[in-house]
Amino acid sequence: MTERHVTLDAVRGFAVLGILVMNIVGMGLPSYAYMDPGYAGGDGGANLAAWAVAHVLVDGKMRALFTLMFGASLLLIADAAEGRTPGPAGTHYRRMAWLLVFGMIHAWAIWYGDILVTYALAGSVAFLLRHQPPRRLIGIGLVILGLLVAWGLMGHFHFAQLRAMAETPGAAAEVVKAWQTESAMLAPPPSEAQAEIAGYRGGFADVFATRAKMVIFFQTFLIPTNFMWEALGFMCVGMALFRLGFFTGAWDIRIYARLGAVLIPVGIVFGTPLAGKLWMVRWDPVTTLATDALAIPVHLIMAIGYASAVIAIVKSGALKGAVARLAAAGRMAFSNYLGASLITTTLFYGYGLGLFGRFERFELYGVVLAVWVLQLAISKPWLERFHYGPFEWAWRSLVKWQPQPMRRISAPRPTASS
Length: 418
Known about the structure:
This protein is mainly α.
């Protein structure tokens, strides 16, 4: 494997492992605990520290990094399909169609917080921009992300104004009713947490019914109004960085080291006050709309910083053993992403061990560590025996509509007579 492949795979591996830090909250606790640690899982002591560290260092950043890498991979695969049958467009849209299928199965049958449906939709649009020059791709991406920031702030100001009007003495009954109706969209009542816990500790039918409510919310509201556009913005930037040679390690190692040393601290400096504000207002949902919007540029800054740091380590030749395992995890990112969902939901849901809602927030990170160890331990030896991860193999075979070679063929050992 060449260095350029190691850089791509190592960054992708870092992202797929890191994204579990936030996903685990939605897997093991009632859904709104992702936004408000006081809703479930604990918001003091070690739980508060776990929330703060994850919020500043991980929340949104790993999703951004994972999405940047998706944009880079989109171009990598399209370029490789040039001059072949079915060609770049045919290959890409077959991949996106099957990714949509995988995503729908993942969302409806395993975990509601699926990102694959979002990627299939956003990737279908991003492909149309693949021939744009890098500077224009960056511009398009930043415009989309800027519009999302504006959209989030508009939502914040709308709800803040409506709440102020409703809480004014003598407020009209219709204003109070409008606030009560609209505020229910922002945060569920505490009683729903107990209903969610009971549902996920039940059997298959109970789990499915509980999960379906969140899937519908994601796929009919969050994806079309926010997630798809955020993904498209990050994909555009990722495609531009790929074209500029960033992800393939073409730049001088000193540039990567400097970017990592500057961008990560900058992200922390700007992200910490946003986390502090949320803590001060006890995760008020109206304030959360503003902090989430303002955090979008921070996510991009830190994602590029993390990628730079990983690439600098790869290019330095340091930590070769760790880099090899991280790169293997990245080559199997699809399998590791879905595998993490299968492992954790089996652990938490009633048809498995039924531990949903039984862990405090900080305790969930013991599960994350165990999954990381498992994935880093298995990915490299798996790829020494097989060409692809199991889900990569299935995806590739479906796109080509024929089973792909899976097992690596070892060279025959020389005999004594030879």
